[in-house]
Each structure stands twice: as C-alpha cells, then as structure tokens.
Amino acid sequence: MKKLVTAFTTVAIVSSASYAIAQNQLETTLDLVVRGMMDDGTDVSYGERIIGGDGSIKYTDLVIAAPDGEFSMSLDWLKGVPSGSDVTFTVSDTIDFSGQAEGVEFSFEIQSSALELTTNGLLREAMSTEDVTVTFSADKFIVDGGDPQSDVLRKLFIDLGEVDFNLLVSTEEMYVEGGFDAEKMDVAYDYTFEGQSQDVEQTTGATTLSFEFDIPEDEEDALGYLDGSKSGVFKMNSGASEFVTSMVADGVAVEMEGTSGEGSILLEIVDGNITYDVNADGFDMVVTPGAGMPIPPVEIGMGEMAVKLVIPAGAADAPAEMVIDILFADLVIGEGLWSMIDPNQTISRDPAQLDIDIEALVQLDAMAAVGGGDPTSAATIYSLDINQILLSLAGASIQVDGAATFDNSGPIPMPLGSVNIDMRGISTLANKLVTLGLLDQMQAGMAMGMMMAFGKPGAEADQFISEITFSEDGILANGQPIR
C-alpha cells in the first residue's frame, strides 16, 4: 500500500505553495498532481481530458494503478470545478478498487449518488487564508465487495445512506474541527484469516460525530492537554442496532445475535479536566455455542449502561472535583445458563445492578507525574463523598454511603469521617451457594463471621448494618475499636 500512501501524499503536497504558487489554474495544479504520481511510479491513464470554459477539468475512463498491482482504482469520470479559492470534485456513481495487501487479493466498488468533495486547499487563492476546509457529501454511499468464492474475503458491505463530512484545519490558530453525519451504518463482512473466520451482519441507525482539538507543535507541546493550555473534544452518537454474528476460532464455533439501544460517547480535555462519559440504552443478546459444546444458548441483557469519569489532571494549583459515576442497570442472564448451576431455581433471578457514585476533592499535578516526579506527591485528596455504592445480585445486596475529609499533614493521608454499610440477603445467598456446591462451607463460615463481627443485625431478616468511623483515636465499627 506504499504506492497508495505516496499518491495521496502527493495530493497533499500539491496544496502547498511550492506546487501551486506558480499557477492559479486548476488545469496546471492537476497536471502537477498527475506528474507527481507518475514520477513516483504510479500509472495514471484516461480516455479524455476535457477543459471547460469555466476552468473545469474532466477526466474520462480514469485509471490509477500502482505498478506492482498493490492498488488500482478506476472510474468512468472525475470532474473538478473551480470557484474562487474552492474546487468542487464530482465523480461517476461507481468507483472500482482492486489490489492486494499482505498477499491477499481484494476488490470492491464504491456506489454513490451526488457525491461532492469541496476544498479550498488546492489552488493558489487558498494561500491567502490560514484555514483549509474540506467538505464531503453524498445522497448515498455504499461500499460493496468481496468474492463469495474467496478463501479469505468473501464479503464486504458498508451502507452509510446519506453522508456529510466537514473539516477545518487552521494553521494560524493551530486547531482542527470537523464533523461527520451518516443516515445509517449497515455493515456486513465475511472473512477467514489465519485460521479464524467471522461472518457479521449489523444495522445501526443514524450516527453522528464531531471533534475539535488543538494541534501540538511537538511531543512536549502535547503535554499542554494536561496543564490546560490545550483542549480537545470528541463526541459521538449512534442509533439503535441489530446484529447477527458467527465466528470460528481454533475449531470452536459461536453464534451471536441481538439488539442494542442508542448510545453516546464524550471524550473531553478542557482546562486540564479529562471527562469520559459513555451512555447506552442497553442490549439483549443470545450467544449460541457450536455443535459439540455442552453449553445451552445463553441469553444476556442489560437495561442501561453509563460510565462517567471526571479527572482534574490540571488541578496543580488548587483542589478540584473528581467524579466516578458507573451504572450497570437491570443485568439479566437467561435460564439456559442459570439451569446449569441452579436447576431448581433456588437462587433469585432478579436483575443485577451496579451503581457507583463517588465524588472527591483532589489536587493533581499530572505534569509532575509525567515528568518523572514522585507519583505520591503528585496527588493529594482533601475529601471523599460516597454518595452510593450499590451491588445487588441474586437476591442479595450491599449498599455503601458515607463521607470523609483527609488530614494530609503526615506521610499518609488520614481519613476523618464515616462509612455506612447495609448488607441484605448475604447469608441466605451464601447458604444456597454452599448447598449447590459453588461455595466451600468453611469459606462461607469465615465470610459470615466477619460480617457479624463488624456488623449488627438490622430491622429486616438477614440484614446486617455497620458504621465504620475514622477518627483521630482510630477506626471504629459500630462504636467498637477495630484491632
């Protein structure tokens, strides 16, 4: 693929003053593109080269091919139309690609409708601005390829529907921003490679993404993301999805099918604060092991998933809030798997849940840690609020909340505060696991002994509660010192 990379690099070089400053015409610029590609060994041929009265250039029966057969692209026509500093390219509805990579042959075609690509980074007029823009749009965009008789790539299909893309690169302000919208994202592929096979069909609703980030001048300048002098934001939203997958690896076959809800991703680094925020409306899927495996189909579902992390990496001068917020709600496993370990349904099938909501006031010096400083001195915690930690599973639950401040005058931060622990159904679940042979009796007894030692019975059956207090006099459990 080196020829392909070189070809596209040549196109990028043409946008610089060294190629375009001598002429202000699309004709001359494209001639330089073709000449540069051919000088590099790439074969470029076409039927006609039609120059329009508006300065446009149209190539018919255009073929671009690397001499060693690594890559070939052909299309009925390509047309470029200049307008001020912009050039708009349109192409025929079908573009054919073929070649080989790592000894594997491939071929596919791009099917599009009303495809347009516009940029101001090609002609001399663009040199008067420090902002280079690229826009791309099509009423439909499909990639269709593969050979059903191939031993490697039997199918490759991508359907994005209507698409829009925009990009702005500012060399003066040193930042990039852009976005991409796809009406849908339907994907299918079937391949075998290095003894592993996979056949996938997936449909996904509308997908959008946007990004904006500062461009670092070098590796050292990239540390500006941590000290707050640089920023970056990436956002993505995707629609609901359906999928069917079969795979074979090391002789083991597995099939999966299911659905998932809408989802979103946010990755943000602004003012030294790192935010990672992921949300999904849940999923339902069935995993079916292949013939010969003594495992029934496994049904798995989740109602909601959310993960949010906020890390004040640039809080070197003053404390700032750190957030850990994790939710896995309504996780269920079908009876197929349950029946293997609990055929008589002695264990509750209630949906499982994990909910973690923690806030802390911290002072972090990420620059010092990256620079090779003492990691322990790069972080200081001032307070911790456990709004909730909840784990419920198989009819049992553990819930924790509390708060503490920290005395940082000594070598080790000392907490001052309390934590409340509420445990329900633990002994009942432990006894059932022992009966089923899933838990050793001695281990269960030790766990129950610890729970009774540090807890006290609650108002309900099989409930133990405990208040752990951190004071200057030591650690107390329900008012009793822990030795």
What percent strand?
over 45%
Beta-strand segment tally: 33
Rg, alpha carbons? 31 Å
Q: What's the end-to-end separation, in Å?
A: 67 Å
Based on the model shown, name its key terms.
8 helices, mainly beta, flat, 33 strands, 483 residues, single chain, 3 domains, disordered N terminus, 22-stranded antiparallel barrel
How is this structure best described in words?
The protein is mainly β. The protein folds into 3 domains: 1-193, no CATH class; 234-394, no CATH class; 419-483, no CATH class. The chain contains 8 helices and 33 strands. Helix 1 packs antiparallel against helix 3 (26-39). The protein starts with a helix and ends with a strand.
Please summarize what this structure is.
The chain is mainly beta and 483 residues long. It contains eight helices and 33 strands. Strand 27 (379-393) and strand 28 form a beta hairpin.
Topology (elements, then pairings):
Blueprint: H1 2-14, H2 17-20, H3 26-39, E1 43-45, E2 49-51, E3 57-65, E4 71-83, E5 86-91, E6 94-101, E7 104-113, E8 116-119, E9 131-138, E10 140-145, E11 153-159, E12 163-170, E13 175-182, E14 186-193, E15 196-204, E16 207-214, H4 224-227, E17 232-238, E18 241-249, E19 252-260, E20 263-270, E21 273-280, E22 283-289, E23 298-302, E24 304-312, E25 320-333, H5 335-341, E26 352-364, H6 366-370, E27 379-393, E28 396-407, E29 414-424, H7 426-435, H8 441-454, E30 456-457, E31 463-471, E32 474-477, E33 480-481
Antiparallel strand pairs: 1-3, 2-3, 3-4, 4-5, 4-6, 5-8, 6-7, 7-10, 8-9, 9-12, 10-11, 11-14, 12-13, 13-16, 14-15, 15-18, 16-17, 17-20, 18-19, 19-22, 20-21, 21-24, 22-23, 23-25, 24-25, 25-26, 26-27, 27-28, 28-29, 29-31, 30-31, 31-32, 32-33
Helix pairs in contact: 1-3
